[in-house]
């Protein structure tokens, strides 16, 4: 893992890597006030197992090896755990099934903040 990166820097770098691989429906949730599990969840969607692996590989290439990686074999839902930031790369069906947007419905949506807007969004997530 790249030493010295803040959780926000990890989100920015990983988000850039995912978007470079054409990740879709990307959301960034701020979990700081909700759990000690992680500061941020970054969700993205891939159209195929090949694209899901490419997105996960791009994130790992940018940030270094994750503390834990799950789901690479099937690539329906790949989880890359960087401690304070967790990246979730879903295929569409798995994303709908697990519905993390609903599960973490109280989390602040900061997608626009990390994608270049001046202030973070504080609105509810839109359904897929």
Task: Tell me about this structure.
- This protein is of the alpha+beta class.
- The N and C termini lie far apart (31 Å).
- It has 5 helices and 6 strands; from the N terminus they run H-E-E-H-E-E-E-H-H-E-H.
- It has helices at 7-20, 49-63, 92-98, 100-103, 111-114, and strands spanning 24-30, 40-46, 68-70, 77-81, 85-91, 108-109.
- Helix 1 (7-20) crosses helix 2 (49-63).
- Mean pLDDT is 88; it is low at 117-128.
- The radius of gyration is 13 Å and the shape is globular.
Outline the secondary-structure elements.
Blueprint: H1 7-20, E1 24-30, E2 40-46, H2 49-63, E3 68-70, E4 77-81, E5 85-91, H3 92-98, H4 100-103, E6 108-109, H5 111-114
Parallel strand pairs: 2-5
Antiparallel strand pairs: 1-2, 1-6, 3-4, 4-5
Helix pairs in contact: 1-2
Q: What amount of the residues lies in strands?
A: 15-25%
What would the average pLDDT be, to the nearest integer?
88
Unreliably modeled segments? 117-128
Helix fraction bin: 25-40%
Largest pleated sheet: 6 strands, mixed
Strand order in the largest sheet:
3-4-5-2-1-6
What general form does the structure show?
globular
**How many extended strands?**
6
Total helices: the number is 5
Write the H/E string, N to C. Answer: HEEHEEEHHEH
Calculate the terminal CA-CA distance, rounded to whole Å: 31 Å
Radius of gyration: 13 Å
- What structural class do you assign from the helix and strand content? alpha+beta
């Amino acid at each position: 893992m790249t030493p010295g990166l803040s959780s926000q820097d990890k989100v920015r770098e990983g988000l850039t890597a995912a978007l470079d691989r054409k990740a879709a429906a990307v959301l960034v949730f701020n979990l700081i006030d909700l759990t000690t599990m992680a500061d941020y969840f970054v969700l993205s969607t891939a159209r195929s197992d090949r694209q899901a692996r490419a997105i996960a590989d791009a994130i790992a290439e940018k940030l270094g090896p994750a503390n834990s990686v799950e789901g690479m074999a099937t690539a329906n839902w790949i989880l890359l755990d960087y401690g304070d930031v967790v990246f979730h790369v879903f295929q569409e069906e798995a994303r709908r099934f697990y519905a993390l947007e609903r599960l973490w419905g109280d989390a602040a949506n900061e997608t626009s903040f990390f994608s270049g807007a001046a202030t973070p969004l504080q609105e509810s997530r839109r359904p897929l």
